[in-house]
From TrEMBL:
Pathway: Cofactor biosynthesis; adenosylcobalamin biosynthesis; precorrin-2 from uroporphyrinogen III: step 1/1; Porphyrin-containing compound metabolism; siroheme biosynthesis; precorrin-2 from uroporphyrinogen III: step 1/1
Keyword Endoplasmic reticulum: no
Source species of the chain: Pelagibius litoralis
PROSITE patterns xrefs: SUMT_1, SUMT_2
PANTHER family per UniProt: S-ADENOSYL-L-METHIONINE-DEPENDENT UROPORPHYRINOGEN III METHYLTRANSFERASE, CHLOROPLASTIC, SIROHEME SYNTHASE-RELATED
Keywords: Cobalamin biosynthesis, Methyltransferase, Porphyrin biosynthesis, S-adenosyl-L-methionine, Transferase
Family designation: Belongs to the precorrin methyltransferase family.
Record's protein name: uroporphyrinogen-III C-methyltransferase
Documented EC number(s): 2.1.1.107
EC class: transferase
One Gene Ontology term from the biological process aspect of the record: cobalamin biosynthetic process
Domain Tetrapyrrole methylase intervals: 15-225
Keyword Cytoplasm: no
Length: 279
């Protein structure tokens, strides 16, 4: 292990590293992410990056908040990109830290292209996306050979905060057995309605995972027809990941955190053994 750590790259002055911080639990950071945190001169971080992660940076590392939260005053994206350029041109080691993975609904591609245009060297450090890692923590796999061989990742709002346009809801409803929604809580009623209108079953399982991988994590299991009203009734707030599909049923057997607290797990959550025995 010591040899591996010593071989990690040196964060050169005048460069920007675009780093994914994972879904929240600091233990899910990559070695490259921790290495970057320990060398950075300035840290430009998003709203979903927690204090436990930020505290891994040196005490004298400058912190700059650049978070975007729906419905709240947020930095302009162009200003964030230009700040990264300016800081790098000042000879600083600039760590752009994003929740999840920088290229999964994180606008990391836009920022990286701005660096390219300005001639600033950069490195991409992938992170665990909440749509995969957060669901795994909840005991929900995004693929399982008895349920699906395809999955769709979808943003729950457009650039202006509205229901995303340009989505072929009929094709999505018909063609994607599992749908994972990011930033969808505000429009969950409209999204569920569109999917049901185009053929999804109102009783299809849905899980809403709030504060994924963190101590405050909560999971609501519901169905497509009732998900919006039950989210409201439960008082669930973002950040959330929503997953729609039969994989949600697997949580009855794969809730490893619940098992540690005494939950009895079901070794046949899809009822396949019963179907074989009675079929």
């Amino acid at each position: 292990m010591n040899t591996t750590l010593k071989a990690l790259p040196v964060f050169q002055p005048g460069t920007v590293w675009l780093v994914g911080a994972g879904p929240g639990d600091p233990g899910l950071l990559t070695l490259h992410a921790v290495n970057a945190l320990q060398q950075a001169d300035v840290l430009v971080y998003d709203a979903l990056v927690g204090e436990a992660v930020l505290d891994l940076a040196p005490a004298d590392c400058e912190r700059i908040y650049a978070g975007k939260r729906g419905g709240r005053p947020s930095p302009v994206q162009a200003d964030i990109s230009q700040r990264l350029v300016r800081l790098a041109k000042e000879g600083k080691r600039v760590l752009r830290l994003k929740g999840g993975d920088p290229f999964v609904f994180g606008r990391g591609g836009e920022e990286a292209l701005s660096l390219v245009a300005a001639g600033v060297p950069f490195r991409i450090v992938p992170g665990i996306s909440a749509g995969i890692g957060g669901l795994a923590y909840a005991g929900i796999p995004v693929t399982h050979r008895d349920t699906n061989s395809a999955v769709t990742f979808l943003t729950g709002h457009g650039v202006g905060g509205e229901v995303p346009d340009g989505i072929d809801w009929a094709a999505l409803a018909k063609g994607s057995p599992v749908i994972v929604l990011y930033m969808a809580l505000k429009h969950i009623a409209a999204i569920a309605g569109a999917l049901i209108e185009h053929g999804r079953s109102p009783s299809e399982p849905v899980a809403v995972v709030s504060q994924a991988t963190l101590p405050a994590q909560t999971i609501l299991e519901t169905c497509l027809a009732r998900c919006a009203e039950e989210v409201t009734a439960a008082g669930i707030e973002p950040p959330c990941i929503v997953v729609i599909g039969e994989v949600v049923r697997l949580r009855a057997g794969l809730d490893w955190q619940g098992a540690a607290e005494g939950r009895e797990l079901d070794d046949d959550p899809l009822g396949l053994r019963h179907r074989r025995e009675t079929g």
